[in-house]
Amino acid sequence: MADIIDGKAIAAEIRQDIAADTQALIAQGITPGLAVVLVGEDPASRVYVSMKEKACAAAGIYSVEHKLAAETSEADLLKLITNLNDDTDIDGILVQLPLPEHIDESKVLEAIDPTKDVDGFHPYNVGRLMTGNPLFQPCTPYGVMKMLEHHGVDLNGKEVVVVGRSNIVGKPVALMCLAENATVTICHSRTVDLPQKVAAADVVIAAVGRPEMIKGDWIKKGAIVIDVGVNRVGEKKLVGDVDFKAASENAAAITPVPGGVGPMTITMLLYNTIVSAKRRAAQ
Ligand SMILES: Nc1nc(=O)c2c([nH]1)NC[C@@H]1CN(c3ccc(C(=O)N[C@@H](CCC(=O)O)C(=O)O)cc3)C=[N+]21
């Protein structure tokens, strides 16, 4: 049976450090500040945003939520971002994705001051990550790396297979593993013989958004499995991209869903906010 890599526990540990750093910054007269912008009424987005609020409050971070109506114009959203860029109380700006259809996502992400881009989605920060000199690392992949580190996984020379090629998870996590000297393969919907690719992996990182599509018998004995998927099936049940039960038979260690990567994502958002506030304090 596999070890469970407990994201909730690792997140709680990191959040204690974040709370201590926050107190130290406040003592220097700098209160870390995060602005979260939510456009529209998507229920899942609302849940995530309120989780972020609670986590900020628990850590002592100042947070402001800007809830805008679904029909808000792109121009008005850009205006809000400009104001937040100029607001000296704000160290981090997060615009919750997805945005409504009529708003150009790239335009919005590019409007955020890269020095406040705690999501790490601005092309400037993407470029900094790609060239090996990151300013902010995107929260979900950064959380994945912290989980591997906490579990004592050394990626040097390992075969990492990333399933999924999104800008927010697949591509950046592949770059981060490469920076740790892994041999990285990125698989996707057009990959030929995915089971065989996954079977070659020492570390599998699943980020496709399809419930339990990665089967347990694809996993090599002793592999590490990181499941980034959060798929709601039916009313309440949350499952990952990996068939957890079957994969646990082969894996040396595996992350659960819920309680795996999810809690780490929010933790790394707070972490990036503190990093940004420390830069402000050092100015
Ligand atoms: N600009 C932006 N940045 C994001 O980081 C971002 C976003 N937009 N849009 C949506 C996705 C999704 N996301 C999650 C955060 C926490 C959990 C999480 O904590 N999940 C819990 C379960 C929570 C539940 O029950 O729904 C868990 O896995 O244990 C999941 C997903 C951040 N996202």
From TrEMBL:
Pathway in which this enzyme or protein is active: One-carbon metabolism; tetrahydrofolate interconversion
GO molecular function terms attached to this record: methenyltetrahydrofolate cyclohydrolase activity; methylenetetrahydrofolate dehydrogenase (NADP+) activity
Positions of the Tetrahydrofolate dehydrogenase/cyclohydrolase catalytic domain: 5-119
Tetrahydrofolate dehydrogenase/cyclohydrolase NAD(P)-binding domain boundaries: 138-280
GO biological processes: L-histidine biosynthetic process; methionine biosynthetic process; purine nucleotide biosynthetic process; tetrahydrofolate interconversion
EC number in record: 1.5.1.5, 3.5.4.9
Keywords, in A-Z order: Amino-acid biosynthesis, Histidine biosynthesis, Hydrolase, Methionine biosynthesis, Multifunctional enzyme, NADP, One-carbon metabolism, Oxidoreductase, Purine biosynthesis
Pfam families assigned: THF_DHG_CYH, THF_DHG_CYH_C
Keyword Nucleotidyltransferase belongs to the record: no
GO cellular component, one term: cytosol
Catalytic function, reaction form: (6R)-5,10-methylene-5,6,7,8-tetrahydrofolate + NADP(+) = (6R)-5,10-methenyltetrahydrofolate + NADPH; (6R)-5,10-methenyltetrahydrofolate + H2O = (6R)-10-formyltetrahydrofolate + H(+)
Residue numbers binding NADP(+): G164, R165, S166, V230
InterPro entries according to UniProt: Aminoacid_DH-like_N_sf (IPR046346), NAD(P)-bd_dom_sf (IPR036291), THF_DH/CycHdrlase (IPR000672), THF_DH/CycHdrlase_cat_dom (IPR020630), THF_DH/CycHdrlase_CS (IPR020867), THF_DH/CycHdrlase_NAD-bd_dom (IPR020631)
PANTHER family found in the cross-reference section: C-1-TETRAHYDROFOLATE SYNTHASE, CYTOPLASMIC, C-1-TETRAHYDROFOLATE SYNTHASE, CYTOPLASMIC-RELATED
UniProt similarity note: Belongs to the tetrahydrofolate dehydrogenase/cyclohydrolase family.
Subunit architecture: Homodimer.
Role, per record: Catalyzes the oxidation of 5,10-methylenetetrahydrofolate to 5,10-methenyltetrahydrofolate and then the hydrolysis of 5,10-methenyltetrahydrofolate to 10-formyltetrahydrofolate.
Name of the protein in its database record: Bifunctional protein FolD
